[in-house]
Amino acid sequence: MIEVKNVSKTYKMGKEIVTALNNVNLKIDDGEFVAIVGPSGSGKSTLMHLVGGLDTPTIGSICVDNKDISKLKDKEMSKYRNRKIGFVFQAFNLENTQTALENVMMPLIFAGVNGGLRREKAKKALEMVGLKDKEKHRPSEMSGGQRQRVSIARALVNEPQIIFADEPTGNLDSKNGALIMKLLEDLNEKGYTIIMVTHNMEEAKKAKRVIRIKDGQVEEVEESEI
Question: Which domain of life is it from (predicted)?
């Protein structure tokens, strides 16, 4: 379970202090599919970055499975991100000079998985997202939807507990966007916890719970109508 307790995040911009999150409290259970929505600058991506271990709160605690990740040392935080979390980004964040298989293997290299097993696990992850026949293709040789599926395979390859998807369909047309949303729903059915940041309310309704954020505060938490 994820528990965000009294979390605030401030940044210094010149002489000004900017508050990105203000006293946020939130719980997300294992196996949930949650959509975090809100206008640009509301703090939704900041919240995802904090829970994902990409940043630390100014005040408050973030507990994952009863461990306060905001107190982890750098080495422990890297292990948390590599083993517990899978990230999917709007811009795909793939290495253009590497094949799909090589891109998916990257987290396994950081995890110290040996070469043979690394290749086997990466192949399995690509097969899970329907790209078994694209192993040797580079990102420039694939469509936007295929590139996003490669990034999802990369997020899955270490068998994480939680998948964070930050505007996962933002660079895709509606057809490919629908395919990515279906893939996220299928992964949730398999037991993965999915936390998706989006401005698309139609896609947010695919989640089982919608968390609305405005001006750095949780404004409303509601069950999805779908």
Answer: Bacteria
